Amino acid sequence: MKRADTAVKNIKKGSFKILFRCIKYLLSYKYTAAGVLLSLLLSSAINLAIPKVMQIVIDRGITLRVPRIIILGSGLIIAFSLMGALFSFIQGYLATRVSHGVAFDLRNHIYEKVQHLSFSYHDRAQTGQLLTRATSDVDLVREFIGRGVIQLLNALIMMGGSIILLYNINWKLTFMVLPVMALAFLIFFLFARIISPFIKIIQEKLGLLNTRLQESITGIRVVKAFAREVFEEERFAKSNRDLRDINLRTGKYIASGMPLIFAMANISTLVVVWAGGYQVLANYLTIGELVAFMSYLMMSMFPMMILGMLLMTIAQAAACAERIFEVLDASSETVEKPGAARLPPIQGKLIFENVTFRYFKGTAPVLSRISFTALPGQTIALLGATGSGKSTVINLIPRFYDVSEGRITIDGYDIRDITLESLRRQIGIVLQEVILFGTTIRENIAYGKPEATDSEITAAARTAAAHPFIESFPQGYNTVVGERGVTLSGGQKQRIAIARALLVDPRILILDDSMSSVDFKAESKIRQALEDLRRERLCFVIAQRISTVRNADQIIVLDNGKIAAMGNHESLMAESPLYADIYYSQLKPETAG
Ligand SMILES: Nc1ncnc2c1ncn2[C@@H]1O[C@H](COP(=O)(O)OP(=O)(O)OP(=O)(O)O)[C@@H](O)[C@H]1O
Ligand SMILES: [Mg+2]
Fold first, then answer.
1. What is the pTM of this model?
2. The domain containing residue 405 runs over which residues?
3. Which of 122, 366, 395 to mutate to test the pocket of ligand 1 (most atoms within 8 A of CB)?
4. How far is the CA of 282 from the centre of ligand 1 (A)?
């Protein structure tokens, strides 16, 4: 219940502002929206006119026995009904167009935003929650815009119109039923208040369920390897149960509102029959007026009922909109400065100046005071124990994260002063965790340069020692790889990722442990091929094998986020006990390989 309380506060704080923001999305569809409004007004006016015609038919036609009026009136009612139906249809159709348009825009905005959010956002974000926001949350907001807003307007027009007409027919009777109406309204309002916090919880639980689903499906191989299917099933069942229970609880509240609504409608009918009947007997009211009065009464009660349910739709939409705007408003930690310059084609002189970095503010730094200069054409190797900060160093170069202190410059440009695109376009990176897309090998390699020709693609694949194994597949470059590349071996994946990085012909090439799964022979092939390429570019290599780093121009030995030693192989062998240690521990397997 505590969570529900905080949800209430959240909803109260800004529901209107948030919904107003949703309504602003309507501006792109203003003509269609105006059409919706117009057809709504027309159909409401027609519906409001029907009881008036009925009143005339009864009082002038039936009571005074004038068949012509009865026939004419009936014809008019039929015509009005048909017209009302037509306008309702037009309104419904246009409203659907508008709401799907808004949902389309919202989904695109979320996707765009998610694409541009920084690494640190995605480090924390749950995929399932993001999926729920882009699908279910958007859908509920669409529901609100497509039906909610229309029904709200419709209810207000019908309520206002029928109350005026009630008053017009008999003000005394109107004042008698007004308290019942006010009471009914109050009850619905309270209901919506009680239910709205649950809605937000429902969406959160749905997000959690999606996260579980997504995680266990992408990790299905681990689940099976450890025979944890039953555990996963139970965990999913629990999330699923939670979701069902909260839905049931909400449903119970909603259901208990219905009898109350009918009770209110019946009470007010009773008041009218009793007091109105009395007035008819006293000749203050005609039968036609009484019938019209009853019709208008229902017309005003019905919207109230809808309004009660609408308050729920509104609460729901507000909760969902809040979750959507949370994503849309999330600030990216690596942002471009306004008017950031484009980085011109670079030579590749990269300098780390006293760089200190923390993944989270206030925590101990992962990198402390890292300084080094890398010159064009050099190969820089990073060496160090697991967790010493090697990947972190290279993640700072394409600005996946921003330095906490110090600065990084490329050809003299502070990388925070230039556009992300112009920076990243000149960097080819093979991440430690290779991710391929579920498409053909060709498209995967050409990911960074979709316009690449076949010969460029095969050249890159040859350099990465990937061409032979790709050719050995029956479908060659058109082989479709599984999601995230699961149908390939670890070493094959790495080689495709290297080809992908090489294809963009980057000025700075970064290989993060990219040959860890590649056998020794293939590795030396790749190394030889890279040898020719690397003269014209700056290369960063992270590797576990000394053989990979041995020929590097500079080897940076990291220890616990600090530079323990720096130099080439010979100088390090002479000066750094840590390096010599690593060297001797690896000597054996290497000579064996
Ligand atoms: N996204 C992240 N958020 C928070 N902390 C992180 C993140 N990535 C890495 N770290 C932490 O930063 C430290 C350095 O990690 P890093 O990945 O740079 O190590 P590494 O030298 O590349 O190790 P390995 O050889 O295992 O790849 C580790 O203590 C790790 O826990
Ligand atoms: Mg690493």
1. 0.77
2. 350-592
3. 366
4. 89
